[in-house]
Design brief:
- The chain is mainly alpha-helical and 149 residues long.
- The protein has one domain: Winged helix-like DNA-binding domain superfamily/Winged helix DNA-binding domain (Arc Repressor Mutant, subunit A, Orthogonal Bundle).
- The chain contains six helices and two strands, in the order H-H-H-H-E-E-H-H.
- The chain has a two-stranded antiparallel ribbon.
- Helix 1 crosses helix 5 and helix 3 crosses helix 4.
- The chain is globular, with a radius of gyration of 18 Å.
- It starts with a helix and ends in a 5-residue tail after the last helix.
């Protein structure tokens, strides 16, 4: 299993490299921590500062500083939560949505270039293997109470 784990780790590093190159090609390039904030907020429209800090596994003041930077660049807005005016809801701006859409398109294009170099059979095998890996990881998360952000 150690050899397999090593091969998966190496492949994952290659995948991260392809995805990161797509991120760095974006103008302006958004730092990974800020991009993670945008991704978390994009996935949950009811994100507040406490939920964001929990998802990032940071103290609220660190999450707030990240939001300050995103707000200064016009990618994030803080608005009172209509359900509880003491809470502040974090919202993506249209610019942030375009940034995420552009990033996803760049990533898909970068992955497509690599996938085109593979045979159709190898691509099908990859999809099956990734599905099995995802299912096994999901079972592990469910068993341990973990969740992904």
């Amino acid at each position: 299993m150690t050899e397999i784990a090593s091969a998966v780790e190496s492949t994952a590093e290659t995948l991260v490299g392809v995805l990161d190159a797509a991120r760095l090609a974006q103008v302006p390039a958004i730092p990974p921590a800020q991009l993670r904030v945008l991704t978390i907020i994009s996935a949950n429209q009811h994100t507040n500062m406490s939920r964001l800090a929990e998802a990032l596994d940071v103290v609220p003041s660190s999450a707030s500083r990240l939001c300050d930077r995103l707000e200064a660049t016009g990618l994030l807005r803080r608005v009172p939560d209509p359900r509880d005016r003491r809470e502040v809801r974090l919202l993506l701006t249209p610019s942030a949505r375009r940034v995420l859409e552009d990033l996803h398109a760049r990533r898909r294009d970068a992955l497509a270039v690599v996938l085109e170099r593979m045979t159709p059979a190898a691509r099908e095998e990859l999809v099956r293997a990734l599905g099995a890996f995802q299912a096994a990881a999901g079972e592990n998360e469910a068993a341990s109470g973990l969740r992904t952000a």
